[in-house]
Amino acid sequence: MDLKGNSMKTLVNWVKHKLGEDGYRGWLESLPDDTKALYRGTIMNSMWYPIDVAYMPALDAVLALTHPDDPVQGGYEFGRFSGAEDLGGIYKVFLKMGSPGKMVTIASMMWSRFYNEGDLKVVENVEGRAVIQMVDVPVKHSPWEQTTRGWSEVAAELAGGKDVEVVVAKSFTAGDDCTEYQLAWK
Description:
Elements lengths: L1 E3 H26 L2 H8 L7 E3 H4 L1 H11 L4 H16 L3 H7 L3 H15 L4 E8 L2 E7 L6 H17 L6 E6 L8 E6 L2
Helix pairs in contact: 1-4, 1-5, 5-8, 7-8
């Protein structure tokens, strides 16, 4: 499974946000050689990178530094940061013109903007509630699943949702056949 370079750049921004420039350099040095080489090079937004080399070791390394006792919570916090960064600018304008329900449909369509495998399926989408499922994904990684939770929460807030809550009801890492996110908002 591959992801686009923009996801790697967002991770770099979060590392610098959480750890500062000195912490960033320490994080970079802690990475496996093949991962480090990618981050030392030029990361192209539109280029595909293997998630198991380019992203998971880098995410695990920063979570070991920022959330050593709760990497799942760290994944959620990074997801919120990522959502705010990814959905700024022109996307924010479109989200504000819509609703959380419309955002769910857009999020499902945006999956392929970030990943070349898997899908976000909309299972339910009614006023104040939606259920989406991450399917056909070969990655089983709890903090990464939580990044989608945090990202979805921010997206629903930007679309006008109040008291947004996103719960992971099923999980690949728990042995389920999908990762299911249940969203609720007012």
